[in-house]
Each structure stands twice: as C-alpha cells, then as structure tokens.
Design brief:
The complex is a heterodimer of chains A (138) and B (625). By secondary structure, chain A is of the alpha+beta class. Chain A is 27% helix and 33% strand. Chain B is α+β, with helices and mostly antiparallel strands and 625 residues long. Chain B is built from 18 helices and 11 strands. In chain B, helix 16 packs antiparallel against helix 17. The longest helix of chain B is centred in the middle third of the chain and has 30 residues. The relative contact order of chain B is 0.08. Classes of the chains: A alpha+beta (138), B alpha+beta (625). At the A-B interface, helix 1, strand 1, strand 6 and helix 3 of A face helix 13, strand 1 and helix 14 of B. Strand 1 of chain A pairs antiparallel with strand 1 of chain B.
C-alpha cells in the first residue's frame, strides 16, 4: 500500500536521476561531438571552425596512391552529389577490402592545410549491405 | 506466379481493411457477434501472405530469375541453405518476412487459451488496431517495396548473395529481429485495446510469456548481429554504435524497461497506464528502427537503399503516436494500488525501468543528433562511439548494480536479507580489487566488472540463502537470465579497454610478438572452390615456447564479386582469444595482418546465449487476474 510521502520520494529520485543523466549527456555532447560533413559542406565551412570531423564521400577514380611498402592510402574524396568538390585524404592504417574507386567511404580525422587535406585516422567503406544494390556495380 | 503472388497480397490488404472497418462499425453501432467473421478474415490474411511467401520460397529454390528479387540475391553456385535464407536478404523480402511473422503470430496469439476471456469490446478494439497495422504493412508490400517484381527477359544467372551475408550469424540475425518486432505487435495492440475498453482482465499477465519470447528473439538477433560483425567483418569489434545497430537496441531497451514495470503490475496491481505506454512505445520503436534503417534520415556505415518507404513509415509512426496519446487520455482511469516506498523491490524495479528508458533516450538522441543539431547548426554535428561509451557504460553498470541488490529487498519495504546485501557489497569491492590487480584500470570498466562479479556472487548466494527459490522454475529462469547479463557485461568491460591490437607486415618464415604471444608466419596456401578462390596464411602461435594453436586467416574472391573479402581466424579461449585478419598479400608473398588479443570476449556470446535460454525457463502458466 502507499506510504506517506512515497510520491515525494519518487519525484526526488526522478529529479536526481534526470539531473545525473542530463549531466552525463551534456558532458558527452560537449566533449565527443564532431562534425558529420559531406565534402561540399566541409569545403564551404570556415577553416577556423574545422577540427575533428567525420567525412562522407565517394572515392575519386584518379590519384589513388597506396602507400609504398606499408599500410595506408592517399586518395581524392569526391562529394557524393557533386564530383567537382574534392578533398585529398591521407590515411595510414589498414585499407579495407572493399575500398576502390567509386565506393562510398566514411573517414574520421582532422583537417590539415586549411580544408583542402584531411588526415584520416579511420577509413570505413560503407557496408555493401544486404539492402544495397548499387555498391556492387560501383 | 508473379501475378498470383501480388494478387494474394492485394486480397490480404483488402481483407485487412474490410475486417478493420467491420470491427470499427461493430464498435460504433454496438453490433455484436462479428468476432467470428473477423477471426476468419484474420486467418485468411495469414493464409494469403503465407501463399505469397511460399511462391517466393519456390522461386528461390528453383532459382527463378524472372523474379527480380531472386535475380538480385541468388546465383547458380549459391548453396541451397543460403538460397533459402535469401528470402530475408533484401529490403523487400525482409518486409515480407516481417508481415508473414505478424500474420502468423496474430493467428497463434488469438488461439491462446484465455484470449477469449477478454471482453468482446476489448477484442473488437484489438482487431481494429491489429488490422490497421496489417493493412499498413500490406500497403507497403504492394506499393513501395514489392518483392514480386518481374524481370524481362529472364537472365540465365543471378547476381548472387553478398559474401558478407554468407555466414550463419548474419542469416539468423535479421529474421530473429523481425520475429522480435512482430512479436511485440499483439501485446501492444491488446494493451491499447484493454485500456481503451476499461478491461478488467490483466493483459500483462496474459502476455507475459509471449513478451518474454519476443524479447528473447530480439535479444538473440542483437547478440547474433554482434557475433557476425566480430567474426565476418574483420575489424575485431562487435558493436560500433552505428545508427543501424542502435536501431534495434532502442526497442530492446524499452521492452526491457516494460518487463520490469510489468512485474509491479502483476504483483502489486500498480502502474497500469505506464505499462500500456511502455508496451505501445516498444512497438512504435520497432517501426522507428525500420525507419532509421530504411529512410536514410541519418548517415550510416551501412549503405541501405532508399526505396521510398521512409515517408509511409514516418506517417505511420505519427499516426501511432496520436493513437497512443488518444487511448491514454480517453481511456477510463483504472484504480490501482500506488507504489510502496523507494526502499523496496518495487522502488528498485521502477528505477531500473528509468535507467533502461534513460539509456534508450541516450541512444536515440545520439543517433538522431545529426538531424537534431541541424536545427541550430548549418553543418550537422554527430556523436561518435566515445559519447556512447562515456554515457551508456555507467548506466549499464547502474542496471547491474540494481539487479544485484534488488532480490535482497522486500516487496513492500525494507531489506529482506541483510547477509545478502553485505555479501553483495563485499563482492563488489573484492571484484573491483581483483579486476584491478588483473590489469583492468579503466575506471568505468572497473566498476562494470566489479558490478558483474558482485551480481554473479549475489545470484549464487540467493539460491543458497533462499532454498525455496530452487523449486520455482520461473525464478531459476529469471535469475539465470540475469546471470547471462552479468557475463555479457563482464566480457564487455574486459574486451573493450584491455584489447591489444596491432597491424603487421610479415615475410614468410618471420615472427612477430603480440602481448605475450609469438606469431610465426609459416606460409601461404592457395585453394579454389566453385564459389570462390582463396589464399590462406598459416600462422603458428606460441606462448613462452609452448604451442597455443594455428591461425589461418584467408582472403577470398567470390564469383560475381570483384573485391576480395577477408575471412578471420581465431584461437578461441575463455580467457584471451587470439584474432587474426589477413589484410593483404603482396607479390613477394609478404602478408599484412591485423591481429588482436581479446580478453574474455567469448563470455559475451556465452552470456547472450544464457540470456535467451533461461528466458524460456522463466515462462509461467498465465493467469488473467
């Protein structure tokens, strides 16, 4: 049965919980948020505003240069819609199997030399998933 | 056959619309005795959808490439097992499978003992809501996502199944998720129907086993997805907090919250309205999961095709939200008990449900952040894995601590068994010290590991201190399920921060050192099958001179797929598992490997399996009061 003041205790607990959750979310958002950008959006942004980012784009057919004698690759990343918009990506880790010209990739890292070059710490090709058909033709 | 399959779906759509309208009419006019006819209509819908599904299965088995869907996911060399499971390999087929599950489960649900004990009004509302849902899915299947499109002229060979999907983990992951999603449909609809009609019988008790089964399907689907990701994608991880992964986790979290508040309604007859809300929220979030995956609203690692279902799904979600709000506002207020003090098992269950919902909110917010941030930022801002790890792990640790402490509290108020709580406190401290001494130094992971160890001790202590629990099968199931959760989080806490990973380029005959292990790269071996050409690297692993095992990671080139695929190799262990991916091989025979040592990772799969198996043991004979 209900105890006297039971609702008040639940309300206080809820406020405490929401306060803690709010703090966790706030600290997470302020420390771990990064720009999610298409190439054209990155090129349109001010240099000073760019730092760490996740970039979405397509691997350009020309200028794919595997790093000699080691892991990594440098390539031009085209905007998904406008191939004229390009950023050079330098990546020095293991290159995924599915990486090749025309595939959609996601790179994470920082902008160097203004917003013309991107030093990537991770390179992921979009999963050629069960629902996707076009990737196979790429 | 294309025409007949399409016709079946169309007739099913018309039947659903007709039966829904009939139920609506009966509710408005007070006309009764229509339930038999609606029930028959429902069986016919299941029959028509089953017929369409049989057509699809026959087309797959016969590799009938005049079906566009078959052409896109099957080829002449695909083994029969994968040919059959290609049923749910694509967007259209998986929606058909989802609809089939809803239809068949709907028939089974209404055949359960005691369903007819619910009032006629409740059942009429049930059928009205249920028919709307079936009609919506059938509309999608006949308009935007039709699996029975014809291809002219008929090709001689298909394109074949994506090699990444040729793995048992991936084959069973999607249908289990869909069975989970479909499973929540009937209870959610019955919850809304019961509430709006002022039903006196308890839908929560009636649906208990059913909900557990749906929850098991969803859990198994998520765990299998993690296992597939770990074993097949070759990146060495199992969860990347990608929108597509988060999509299935969000309804799982709300379903888990409901499972805990449902206990309070069953035992104490409280929280009626909250439970209706949580149950229908779970169904809504299952549709939201599909919307996230198929609409392209957020960028994902997965390149899911957009086939126009985004807008219909969004419309349906808005309709469902409106319906839930109306039912909760219009429905008669049911007089129930209020909750006992916070210092009780009820109180802890409520907080556990809050934490589950908080987690759902965090994951949902994080996933949608690129969309939300667009309201004030010209360029979208997203949140990466660090955000989720920072926010979610403490919350999961809190849940583990809650279920560790909860059984030692009394239902109404106060502590039931002081010895147990002291043991929990001691084992939490001890677990933390042992974990730290064994090398786990990440603070959040340390708390998670200590909480998991404490809960393992607590569950065993419960059966020692309270022998009566050993005689109740459903208690064994419930606590066994929680034991599985503790093992999963023990694995998560250790395998994340304490993983050792490195990439190497090695010549044949050379050795490399990873942690305490020496990897001797012996040779390359080439092979060929009708399906693929492959090359394997043979690596002998030793520790302090003693042989540990042999790794043979492969690179495969499948027929019809030009790019190579990596097949990982592991030396399984309940302690540290050794994991290797062959990234590339150059002309001189030098191999590039990615290798890692993953401590306690197999406990995630063992714990996940126990969660599912003990879930079945938790079943109990349903009562309606």
């Amino acid at each position: 049965m209900a105890k006297k003041g039971g609702k008040g205790v639940y309300l206080a607990a809820l406020i405490l919980f929401l306060g803690g959750l709010g703090y966790l979310i706030y600290s997470g958002i302020s420390q771990d948020s990064v720009y999610f950008l298409n190439v054209s959006e990155a090129l349109a942004m001010d240099e000073s505003a760019l730092g760490q980012a996740r970039l979405f784009g397509k691997v350009a057919p020309q200028n794919i240069q595997p790093k000699a004698g080691g892991l990594g690759v440098s390539f031009d990343l085209n905007d998904q819609k406008n191939a004229a918009q390009t950023i050079r990506v330098i990546y020095s880790g293991a290159v995924p199997d599915t990486f090749k010209e025309g595939v959609e990739v996601i790179v994470e890292g920082i902008f160097v030399n203004g917003n013309k070059e991107f030093k990537a710490t991770s390179l992921i090709t979009k999963c050629p998933s069960k629902y996707e058909k076009k990737n196979r033709e790429g | 056959m294309h025409f007949f399959a399409n016709l079946m779906l169309l007739i099913a759509l018309l039947a659903a619309l007709g039966a829904g309208a009939y139920a609506c009419l009966a509710l408005l006019t007070g006309k009764r005795n229509v339930l038999v006819l609606i029930d028959r209509a429902n069986i016919s819908i299941a029959g028509f959808v089953s017929f369409a599904s049989i057509v699809m299965t026959i087309a797959l088995v016969n590799r009938n490439y005049s079906f566009k869907y078959v052409y896109e996911y099957v080829d002449n060399t695909l083994p029969i097992f994968y040919t059959l499971t290609a049923f749910w390999a694509g967007a259209d087929g998986s929606l058909l499978f989802w609809m089939l599950s809803i239809a068949v489960m709907g028939v089974v649900f209404t055949r359960l003992n005691l369903f007819n004990e619910f009032s006629e009004k409740t059942r009429l509302y049930y059928w009205l809501f249920y028919m709307v849902i079936q009609a919506f899915f059938l509309l999608i299947l006949t308009c935007w996502s039709n699996p029975f499109m014809e291809l002219v002229p008929t090709p001689l060979d298909g394109r074949g199944l994506n090699p990444l999907l040729r793995n048992p983990g991936m084959i069973f992951h999607p249908p289990l998720l869909f069975l989970g999603y479909a499973g929540f449909t009937s209870p959610a609809v019955l919850a809304l129907a019961s509430y709006v009609s002022g039903e006196l019988k308890s839908w929560v008790s009636f649906c208990r086993n059913w909900n557990i089964a749906a929850w098991i399907f969803l859990t198994a689907g998520i765990i299998l997805g993690c296992w597939w990701s770990y074993m097949e994608l070759g990146w060495g991880g199992y969860w990347a907090w990608d929108p597509v992964e988060n999509a299935s986790l969000i309804p799982w979290l709300s379903a888990s919250a409901f499972m805990h508040t449902a206990i309070i309604q069953t035992k104490r007859n409280a929280l009626q309205r909250s439970n209706v809300f949580l149950m229908s929220l779970t169904l809504l979030l299952c549709v939201f999961a599909t919307y996230l995956v198929r609409s392209g609203v957020v960028q994902s690692l997965h390149a899911y095709g957009e086939n126009g279902v985004g807008l219909p799904l969004l419309t349906f979600m808005l309709f469902t939200i409106a319906l839930i709000c109306i039912v909760l506002v219009v429905g008669p207020k049911v007089e129930g008990n209020t909750l006992s003090c916070l210092n009780s098992r009820q109180g802890l269950l409520v907080i556990t449900a809050w934490v589950f919902l908080g987690l759902g909110l965090v994951v949902g917010l994080g996933t949608m952040w690129p969309v939300i941030s667009k309201t004030w930022s010209a360029s979208p801002v997203g949140l990466d894995a660090r955000f989720y790890n920072r926010v979610c792990l403490p919350l999961f640790s809190l849940i583990i601590l809650m279920f560790t402490a909860c059984p030692w509290f009394d239902w109404k108020e106060g502590i039931r068994e002081r010895r147990g709580l002291m043991l929990v406190g001691g084992s939490f401290l001890g677990g933390g010290i042992i974990s730290y001494a064994c090398g786990l130094h990440n603070p959040v992971a340390l708390i998670t590991s200590a909480a998991s160890i404490a809960s393992l001790v607590s569950i065993f202590a419960l059966f020692v201190f309270m022998p009566q629990l050993r005689r109740v099968t459903s208690s064994i199931g419930t606590y066994g399920l929680h034991l599985g959760v503790a093992l999963v989080f023990l694995g998560v806490a250790w395998s994340g921060p304490n993983k050792i990973e490195q990439e190497f380029i090695v010549k044949p005959g050379a050795s490399i050192q990873l942690g305490s292990y020496t990897m001797n790269f012996k040779k390359m071996v080439e092979g060929q099958t009708p399906e693929m050409a492959k090359i394997s690297a043979i690596v002998e692993v030793t520790e302090n001179g003693k042989p540990v095992g042999l790794l043979s990671p492969e690179r495969r080139i499948y027929r019809n797929f030009q790019q190579p695929f990596a097949e990982v190799s592991v030396i399984p262990s309940l302690g540290s598992e050794i994991y290797a991916t062959l990234l590339s091989v150059d002309e001189q025979g030098n191999a590039t490997f990615k290798m890692s040592i993953n401590p306690l990772i197999n406990w995630i799969w063992i714990g996940g399996t126990l969660m599912c198996l003990f879930g079945f043991v938790a079943f109990r004979k349903p009562r309606l009061s």
